[in-house]
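in:
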């Protein structure tokens, strides 16, 4: 998240727009006319994707960039993209695109929630979707990925494979959504190993790999043999510390195995492509609703259903994972999907905002 902001916010956002799948029946004698009309609708939609993160962070921000490009490829129109927006400039940025006549603005990050409500009131014809938001109004919706379901499974992997009975985590900043993720991680570990010790720290810095490496090194010195990060570019330092220390790292938001193929065992991934596509599809079909949609685990990228959180494969490390661990992991995933196992949110009740 998952970084959603560069500074702490007591307001976390997180919710979603559920896209409605429609089947269009076309009269046999006029397919070309129907197709032409649909293409015109696609080309006329103006979409902007904005974030306070960096598109180059190989995680949270890059996932937004990739999803925006996927929208362009699928629908054939240009998407305006802007990253590294300073927190004080968020509302002005939203207004800039609203004034320019954009139909849909997808805001990638928790800090965009309150400004989205404010701008939404001023521009009732503009639709705004906040990814990892928990805000809603008539023309503002949120998509909340239930990331704790993914981190629960990572914690279970660490809990089953640890040889020291100590695992760790490093967060970019201590705000509710990140706390929620790490609480899921702890729950997963303790579900499979009740006596496990979980050590964690927060950096108050999302873009400082050296600081991330220092924090992770300290945790590794306390005998942790798994380190999980949710820390954007600071997390690259966490992965480097794990590599140097000969322990496993667990990544976030994207499959981060490529950063250290012999170190990053798995990652929880956000299916941002799917979430953005649902938002665009709802606007194009006129089914957009100002709702908070909470989407949890899925079996893999683009899987049927509303889920937008899944685990990365083990890649070249798959032979390091015992068969009993794989079997238990599959069972835990099935239990969550079929609602036999709940991974509760650990969020303050006051974070939900409705306008």
């Amino acid at each position: 998240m998952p970084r959603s902001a560069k500074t702490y916010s007591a307001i976390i956002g997180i919710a979603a727009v559920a896209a409605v799948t429609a089947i269009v029946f076309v009269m046999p004698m006029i397919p070309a006319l129907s197709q032409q009309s649909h293409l015109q609708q696609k080309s006329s939609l103006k979409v902007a994707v904005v974030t306070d993160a960096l598109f180059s962070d190989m995680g949270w921000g890059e996932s937004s960039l990739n999803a925006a490009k996927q929208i362009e490829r699928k629908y054939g129109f240009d998407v305006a993209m802007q990253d590294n927006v300073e927190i004080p400039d968020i509302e002005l940025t939203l207004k800039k695109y609203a004034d320019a006549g954009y139909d849909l603005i997808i805001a990638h990050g928790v800090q965009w929630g309150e400004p989205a409500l404010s701008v939404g009131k001023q521009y009732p014809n503009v639709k705004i979707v906040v990814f990892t938001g928990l805000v809603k109004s008539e023309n503002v919706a949120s998509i909340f990925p239930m990331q704790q379901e993914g981190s629960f499974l990572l914690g279970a992997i660490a809990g089953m494979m640890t040889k020291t009975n100590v695992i760790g985590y490093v967060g970019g900043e201590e705000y509710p959504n990140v706390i929620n993720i790490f609480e899921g991680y702890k729950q997963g570990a303790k579900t499979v190993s009740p006596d496990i010790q979980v050590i964690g720290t927060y950096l108050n810095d999302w873009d400082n790999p050296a600081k991330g490496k220092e924090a992770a090194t300290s945790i590794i010195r306390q005998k942790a043999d798994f380190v999980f990060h949710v820390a954007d570019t600071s997390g690259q330092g966490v992965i480097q510390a794990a590599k140097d220390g000969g322990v496993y790292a667990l990544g976030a938001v994207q499959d981060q195995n490529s950063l250290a193929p012999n170190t990053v065992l798995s990652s929880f991934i956000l299916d941002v492509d799917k979430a953005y596509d649902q938002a665009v599809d709802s606007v194009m079909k006129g089914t957009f609703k100002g709702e908070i949609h909470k989407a949890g685990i899925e079996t893999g990228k683009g899987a049927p259903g509303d889920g937008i959180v899944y685990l990365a494969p083990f890649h070249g490390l798959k032979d390091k994972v015992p068969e009993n661990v794989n079997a238990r992991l599959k069972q835990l995933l099935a239990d969550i999907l079929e609602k036999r196992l709940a991974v509760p949110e650990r969020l303050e009740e006051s974070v939900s905002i409705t306008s």
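note: The chain has ten helices and 14 strands.
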